[in-house]
Amino acid sequence: MTLNAWIPVFALMTSLIASLVIFALPEKGYRLRTAVNLVAALLKLGLVVVMVRGVFLGVDYGVSFTMVPGVTFVLKADAFSMMFAGLSAVLWLLTTIYAVGYLEDSPNRSRFFGFFSLCVASTMGIALAGNLFTFFLFYEMLTLSTYPLVVHRGTETALKAGRTYLIYTLTGGAVLLLAIAWLHGVAGDLPFREGGHFIDADPDIHRSLILIFMLLVAGLGVKAAIFPLHGWLPQAMVAPAPVSALLHAVAVVKAGAFGIVRVVYDIYGVEASSALGLLEPLSWLAAFTILYASVRALRQVDLKRRLAFSTVSQVSYIILGVSIFGPVAAVGGLVHLLHQGIMKITLFFCAGNYAETLGIHRIDEMDGAGRRMPGTSVAFTIGAFGMIGAPPLAGFITKWTMGSGSLAVNMDWVVVVLVFSSLLNAAYFLPVLYRLWFREAGVTWPHERHWGRLETSAWLYWPPLLTAAMTVMVGVLASLPFSPLSWAELIMLREYAP
Amino acid sequence: MTLWLMAGLLFTPLAWAVLTLLTDFTRGRLVTWGGILVQVLVSLGLWLVVSRDGGFYYALGGWQAPLGIELRVDGLAVTFVLLTAVVASACGFHAGVYIDPDKPWHRYFWPLFWFLWSGLNAVWLGGDLFNLYVGLELISLSAVGLVALGGKAGALRASLRYLLAALLGSLAYLLGVALIYGQFGTLSIAGIVFWLEEHPVPAGSSLALALMVAGLALKTALFPLHRWLPPAHGIAKSPVSALLSALVVKASFYIAARLWLELGEPLGNLAAAQLVGLLGSAAVVWGSWLACRQMELKQVVAYSSVAQIGYLFLLFPLTYSVSESVSLQAQQGITLQVISHALAKAAMFLAAGNLVLSTGSRRVDALTGVSRFLPFSLFSFALAGVSLMSLPPSGGFAAKWLLLQASLGSGQWWWVLVLLVGGLLSAVYVFRICRASFLESPETNQFYHPHRSLEIIPMILALLSLGLGLVSAEVLSVMALPFEEEGSP
């Protein structure tokens, strides 16, 4: 095999090996552990950059072997995998930096960072999987490696949230396995392929295909938190902030959304999905989830819970985008995979900073926090405006592309949903911003801590500022090559003209 | 060469047994550790011979069946020989450190261990019904002895119960063998198949098959005949529990499966096949449910065995009157299930033993906080759990995938539900243990730290069962190796 075949394997291995090394390190090996983490994250980022360039130029990266009789294990890089891989590589680095600061002096850090790296390895595997079987492998590995993170604090609430998380995700996994095995029986081992496989499928298997599609979406929809399968996500916010970032932005919900996109585009093919009548119901479901979760978010008093419902709503943008049969709207959906990740991770970092520095968890405690923590609050404000869709930030690009795309294919109702959802976004974010900047602070904060010169620990301070800057940049520079938007356009170009 | 390998597999364990019978525990341990090395090399040698040249029949000492001992050495048999070598040596090494040499009756551990090993090899390689019976009895009696080594009243009660079940099972099996001999005049399985090719099926031979399978099902603890298993496996010393769950119950299943695959098509019927599958499914659901409710850690693991054994019996409906490709998938799936369960369950019992040793209590709720003190053993336990939950990339997952394919391919979708529900239920009991140990409670801070080697052995086994899924295609290709010459021996 050539070196190119090995690059995806190396990209997977960086975090896998980091995880094993970290498990083996003693609990007190704080510096060494941080170094291993950062080196692995940088190495992975480098490999991903190499692959992004290669995929753009049309280089083939791939490796496969027979794992179970009749099924192959395939790793390969295409334009879409690089999108997800790029997201997780960049955000892993930032989240690791953040987590080092966040977990300072807390117990069980070795376990935490070990599973954290394992999570990222699973995410990489999901991104690079070349067929549904391989995808499933890493999808389940992700479930198992996130459980110890969700229950990290070992309190009764954490364990309860962990149980809910497992019930949802493992059941979803079982349904997904059934669907994949069934599809394998019907059509054999299907690699992910631009344009899909079922454009002229035998009419005899149409009914099976429709049922399998429903099972696939149900199985993947648990992680993607589509209504009514979203119940685990708001509960899982008891986890430490870096874990929430991982769940909401880098790995878990993205894995579900990514899988649905794979199924629609690279297994069924968007034209076949549309012909089978599968896209329309999916778009309704996504639209309903967007509105429903926004309304629920309005009524939360806990900041992280509000953000959690906001995630439920925002992830469905991706689903809505791809379930509209039209390339421009789909570009909007795909680009949101990145945009939502960057914006949401900013918000969770900030929420974590407020909690760690001032002891704030509820929204009504946030009065005047902007003056005490200006850096964090600026980042939070940018993230919130991004979510609302204010130009020229990340969220605006998404909504604009999706809106104009759906108008182009005469699906005007989507624009109504987008506008309405933006109003709801504004309704649940603006009061928070108002409290941050315009209300007087109370006499004391619940648990204030001080770290030298900066408003908070440097480990916690810089990551949200960086991601906030990225939120601005992906919006302003959206038309440059290698921006998320251009990359999404490249994917769609390949999908619609395979 | 082959002769020496055969002798090495079947008779040298008996020699080790006698040698260790003559010495005390500590010297027996030295003999055993040397013996393990020899056995592993011999097993590996036979495995290499078969994977190079294919399988063969072998009449020991030149006598043909029914008088002599007929051996059938194929890919499946050598795979199990090798599996036994791996698991038994792991248990042997573990036991050498785990078992207290000061108790006088513990010196009997080694002889029983070696009798068990030679019985297992006899079953994997046996080609005629009577010698299979001899191997089976050797296994049962040494297993009962090993359970009784616990020494306390509970262990004696459990072993007595085990003995009764084993004897009853043997009796039913022997009755079936006698009927077969009366009808066919031979005890060689291949001979019977050969005979059936030329003659019509004699009346009453279905009864003989049913008797044998029922007896073997009792010895394998198929629901509802499972009641003897959890107390025996739960109360035995951890290395013993590991041996029993990983290998002993598989031996009787192995015979049942071979009888079914060779004779099921002419002698069995659809209703019986479905009934056995139904009992297996009931075992999966009921066993898992009970595992979720046990208060003692090792009982959880023991009931999990009842459930996992249930899957094996899906072999019967999934190979009866189905297409050849479906039947092959089912056989491959079951074989992988046997291997991955053996590795995972041995790992789990050994790790559970460590946890019990560390907390000083057998109870699940005593595990609070142990994740910080014994993370390595807990991690072995959880990794073995991944295989039991049949999540990727474990051998259990590959097995489940093949069984799902076989169920869907033969249109028997009802087994799909069993496979999925079984997986979820096993997740419940595995995570119940993890949850208990993740609880952070400042009260318990007194933990005993077991010897490092006790922690490493289960980890190796767990990793093997986890990695099996990645190489299952290669493992299955050796198992599928045909005989050099087809037809009659």
From TrEMBL, chain A:
Occurrences of domain NADH:quinone oxidoreductase/Mrp antiporter transmembrane (ranges): 129-424
Keywords on record: Cell membrane, Membrane, Transmembrane, Transmembrane helix
GO cellular component, as recorded: plasma membrane
UniProt-listed InterPro entries: CPA3_Na-H_Antiporter_D (IPR050586), ND/Mrp_TM (IPR001750), Proton_antipo_N (IPR001516)
Subcellular location field: Cell membrane; Membrane
Entry's transmembrane regions: 6-26, 38-59, 79-100, 112-139, 165-187, 208-233, 245-265, 277-295, 315-338, 378-401, 413-438, 459-482
A matching Pfam family: Proton_antipo_N
NADH-Ubiquinone oxidoreductase (complex I) chain 5 N-terminal domain sequence ranges: 71-113
Record membrane topology: Multi-pass membrane protein
Similarity remark: Belongs to the CPA3 antiporters (TC 2.A.63) subunit D family.
Protein name per UniProt: Monovalent cation/H+ antiporter subunit D family protein
Organism: Marinobacter panjinensis
